[in-house]
Amino acid sequence: VVLSATRRGLPKPKMSENGVVPRAKVLTIDTMNPTVKNVEYAVRGPIVARAVELEKELSEGMKKPFAEVIKANIGDAHAMGQQPITFFRQVLALCSYPELLNDSTFPEDAKSRARRILQSCGGNSMGSYSASQGIDSVRQDVARYIERRDGGVPCDPDDIYLTTGASDGIMTMLKLLVCGEGVTRTGVMISIPQYPLYSAALAELGAVQINYYLNEEKCWSLDISELQRALDEARHHCNPRALCIINPGNPTGQVQSRECIEDVIRFAAKEGLFLMADEVYQDNVYADGCQFHSFKKVLFEMGPEYSDTVELASFHSTSKCYMGECGFRGGYMEIINMDDEVKAQLTKLVSVRLCPPVPGQALMDLVVNPPQPGEPSYDNFIKERTATLSALAEKAKLTEQILNTVHGISCNPVQGAMYSFPRIIIPEKADKGQQPDMFYCMKMLEETGICLVPGSGFGQKDGTYHFRMTILPPRDKLQILLNKVKEFHQKFTKHYS
Amino acid sequence: VVLSATRRGLPKPKMSENGVVPRAKVLTIDTMNPTVKNVEYAVRGPIVARAVELEKELSEGMKKPFAEVIKANIGDAHAMGQQPITFFRQVLALCSYPELLNDSTFPEDAKSRARRILQSCGGNSMGSYSASQGIDSVRQDVARYIERRDGGVPCDPDDIYLTTGASDGIMTMLKLLVCGEGVTRTGVMISIPQYPLYSAALAELGAVQINYYLNEEKCWSLDISELQRALDEARHHCNPRALCIINPGNPTGQVQSRECIEDVIRFAAKEGLFLMADEVYQDNVYADGCQFHSFKKVLFEMGPEYSDTVELASFHSTSKCYMGECGFRGGYMEIINMDDEVKAQLTKLVSVRLCPPVPGQALMDLVVNPPQPGEPSYDNFIKERTATLSALAEKAKLTEQILNTVHGISCNPVQGAMYSFPRIIIPEKADKGQQPDMFYCMKMLEETGICLVPGSGFGQKDGTYHFRMTILPPRDKLQILLNKVKEFHQKFTKHYS
User: Fold this and answer.
1) Rounded to a whole number, what is the distance in Å from the CA of B406 to chain A's nearest CA?
2) CB contact under 8 A, A128 and B96
3) B177 with A32: CB under 8 angstroms?
4) pLDDT tens digits for A384-395?
5) Mutation choice for B interface testing from A80, A121, A125 by most B CBs within 10 A
6) Which residue of A346, A401, A473, B359 has the fewest C-beta atoms within 10 A of its own C-beta?
7) Chain A closest-CA separation from residue B298 CA (Å)
8) Quick one: pLDDT at residue B22?
9) How far is B5 from chain A (nearest CA, A)?
10) The pLDDT of residue B411 is above 90
């Protein structure tokens, strides 16, 4: 042991009192993977850890200035009281326990959907491994969904990979792209503010993060000139190879215009960048005049000069939209124009993990193939979906309205997704050594029980401060929460001015 | 584009006939992540790809010398006709569609289990994210299970991390361990033969694989002198930091003796190695006189000199044993003596992926907390579990017996796990440029429809050949399959002699 510690350049272990040399740990903070140390993920960072502690303290009867902790830090719809879609859960129950196929209380369309899923499973059981790329019939349903969504642009099921949530697909694609050292090391362009999965994945992979800033003054829009600036600067120190876009935006809630998407595709083509389109909020569009345009559709409508050449991966998930089924970890990615040899490598790589969770695959199948007009579950499905989406639209507006009444808070319209990302003015006296927005959010948590994520966890322009807040709590609760934020902000500003 | 291609040292793209410069792909086999290219995973390699093709050809009516493809390549119990445990699936159905809690046909113990799981989920829904380390109550149940299994050795729920199958946990632990460059690069000791997740993970992480050979002559036992040899040689070119053990063995089916485990622990302590114990087959022990001993239990019974210092991660899964629920991707790892700062880093790292699939967590909970005596589902649970495990024990014996009747095949007893890994003699004339055992298995697939994995996918001593075959097909089918293997081997040997 002494020998091996010396080999690694560690200090010699000391004798303990009884003369026994205590063994040094094999794995310490100094000898662990350095890229893992660089990973940060604010959505579940120190604020959330403290929120969990506070919940425990409350449950143990400790007195606090609030009765409950409200976690508005993460897009976790069911945890905020959103109800699952009945049809989806009926089919999942049928697939889990096929005896229920004999139960007359289940609707026929749920049963036929369950039978079809089970027939695609080895031994008719969700307990079997699926193909690593995902169940064939599910990938076919995904392809047909994409064709419908994109007005008939063709989609090949062979281009679909089912994933363990969207995060898994994004991580896998980034993994393929990373190579080189020093100035040839792969660089990946991500928006600032960004969803911190991207920065975390790049840190873990040791890739170079290239920041392009969204324009807060223009409702968090994406300017091509800013892409160009970021790219040109990055070319001096790394090899930029990919451009990541989140649309609708997380944490910023903007919905990209068709023109903007065209410009981005032209830019990627001109500069030789692999496009990654994170489109998990594709059903979450609320603002008048806004519409979701998939990168795939726009790409194909730009003609073969682009549609035959630009490499694109687009990601979707069961976790967001109107279903909010985060716990099932369902998702897919569509891969366009990928080199055949690389695609074979991708298939090999995902095979090591065997397969994505089959219940998540089943759920993804239901999302892309929901009840159709004339089927017994159709009306109720539409009713439930509409109720959830209209409630979200209403809460998006409410959030913007109330936050903008507060002096020192300014909030862009929440056009889509599930978050507001308002700018907050923090008095200079509140600059206490730690990040001022972290200090602000921690104070808010301790005083009000509201758990938000500081803007620094997503990235923001130097000298500006923000927080991310989900719009998911039920309307009444959200209103109370927003008023508490208002009150807290006023008190905080007064105290530190 | 020309510029960026040149920057990467690629050949200049050519003009096409219409004068347009076709865009080069951003991502090619030459410009992708080189570590991914080094990954190999035989369990789902070219043989399996061909098996899937053959199934398709059969279904399209093409004539073959066999009526069906039998996939004995992967431990996929339900796909081979094993039935799920009724109680588990009832609880999963109840958790998926809680309306069923009002259904009087479900037993009360299934309902109370479902209620307990749902109460631990945000918003009482499996659709919520769980804590990244896993649901608290499930981790508590896992800890109590480990304590019962290990005769009262204490287990702290804080040391339990729920995972997406065991593969996910193993990959995560290896990721923490990798650092250094050149002769200081992390080396990890794995058995040969091994389960190829290990070699694939090490290739992807760019760690050094250190092979130690199991002793086929002594029923695939592990000799400490061989560990020492492998370690001493490896120290010249890398920094060995971890030792992986699979017990019961995959693909080799041996069950380690208590003495052997003690020796391994002493060796790891002496040499400063982090122990990783893959114990996913802990209920799959068939041979008389064999018994499963967990590394955790043995470690703690060796006294504080070891139990206070040796770092150990042990892995379990819902995919094997008597339940065989692979598709749900459930699993856990227990971490012993890990440095606190490293543990905090581990928790941060897993938080980036948000959480393991919640249905898999629920299933893991049922595995560690099955029906108890006196509960309504107890008798049926025991009946189902016993039936599966005794059938496996019988098939383990049958496999060994029939294979050993074949001249040129010798098979160690299948003491545990789900595979036989017989040695096969391949005539020199069958050495056709590709790996002889790959050639043998591909021939067998084309002629008999039986899908096995060549020994080269797991590693074997130079000049020896093997295949891995699961013992999972139903008894009748297994007997037919074994007789076909026998017939094929005789024909093949005759043909190439």
Assistant:
1) 31
2) no
3) yes
4) 999 999 999 999
5) A125
6) A401
7) 19
8) 62
9) 8
10) yes
Residue of chain B with shortest Cα separation from A92: B96
Is residue A100 scored above 80 in pLDDT? yes
Quick one: tokens of B67? 């009526």
| pLDDT of res. A9 | 45
* A374 domain residue, yes or no: no
| Structural domains of chain A, count | 3
> In this structure, is residue A195 part of a structural domain?
yes
Checking if the pLDDT of B367 tops 60, the result is yes
Tell me, what's the ipTM? Answer: 0.92
Q: A329 to chain B: which residues are within 8 Å by CB?
A: 164, 354-358
Give the model's confidence band at B17: pLDDT under 50 very low, under 70 low, under 90 confident, else very high: low
A1 pLDDT band, cuts 50/70/90, is very low
pLDDT at A424: 96
Chain A residues touching residue B239 (CB < 8 angstroms): 7-8
The closest of B486, B317, B319, B300 to B408, measured between CA atoms, is B486
A438 neighbors A456 (Cβ within 8 angstroms)? yes
Q: Which residue did the predictor score with more confidence, A316 or A26?
A: A316
The answer to whether residue B356 scores a pLDDT higher than 50 is yes
Q: How far is A410 from chain B (nearest CA, A)?
A: 29
B364/B388 same-domain check: no
Helices (H), B120-152: 136-149
Beta bridge partners of B209: B188
Question: Phi/psi at B378 (nearest 5 deg)?
Answer: -60, -50
What pLDDT is stored for residue B7 in this prediction?
44
Nearest to A423 by CA among A405, A411, A434, A415: A411
Nearest CA-CA distance, residue A70 and chain B, Å: 12
Query: What are the distances in angstroms from CA A222 to CA A217, A228, A263, A424?
Result: 11, 11, 10, 21
Contacts of B1 in chain A (CB under 8 A): 270-272
Q: In this predicted structure, what is the pLDDT of residue A11?
A: 46
Both ends of chain A: CA-CA distance in Å? 57
pLDDT at B20: 53
Residue B377 falls inside a structural domain: no
Cis omega (within 30 of 0) on the bond before A193?
yes
Q: Could you please report the per-residue DSSP string of B107-124?
A: -HHHHHHHHHHHHTSGGG
Q: Which residue has the tokens 């994945």?
A: A201
The pLDDT of residue A430 is 83
Encoded tokens for B433: 């440029």
Cβ contact (<8 Å) for A26 and B311? Answer: yes
Chain B residues within 8 A of A323 when measuring between CB atoms: 127
Would you call A79 and B128 a contact, using CB atoms and an 8 Å cutoff?
Answer: yes
Q: Do A127 and B324 touch (CB under 8 A)?
A: yes
Q: Of how many residues is chain B composed?
A: 497
Q: Do B262 and B119 share a domain, yes or no? A: yes
Find all residues with CB under 8 Å of B206, minimum gap 6, and list them.
Answer: B35, B178, B185
In this complex, do A270 and B121 lie within 8 Å of one another by their Cβ atoms?
A: no
Q: How many residues does chain A have?
A: 497
CATH value at residue A56:
3.90.1150.10
| A125-176 residue pLDDT tens | 999 999 999 999 999 999 999 999 999 999 999 999 999 999 999 999 999 9
Tell me what pLDDT residue A17 has. Answer: 52
Q: DSSP for B466-479, please give it.
A: EEEEES-S-HHHHH
Interface probe, candidates B47, B204, B329, chain A, greatest A C-beta count within 10 A: B329
pLDDT in tens, B33-91: 998 888 888 777 789 889 999 999 999 999 999 999 998 998 999 999 999 999 999 99
- In this structure, the answer to whether residues A277 and A171 fall within a common structural domain is yes
Q: Say whether A97 and B81 touch across the interface (CB within 8 A).
A: no
Q: Which residues span the domain enclosing A483?
A: 42-81+385-495
Domain contains A375 = no
- Tell how strand A330-336 and strand A160-164 pair up: antiparallel
Across chain A, mean pLDDT equals 92
